[in-house]
Amino acid sequence: MNSTNDHNTQRSQSGAPLPRIDPHLAAVWGAFLHEGLMLNSRNTERTIKLLDLWGNGCIELIQSVCEYIPILWHQVQPHWDRPQGFPGVFEYEVVSILGEQIAAYMLTHDGALPNDRQFQMMASELVTQFFTRGEHLAKKDVMKPSPASGKQSLWSWLRPWIGGGR
Question: Domain boundaries in the chain?
Answer without folding.
Answer: 24-161
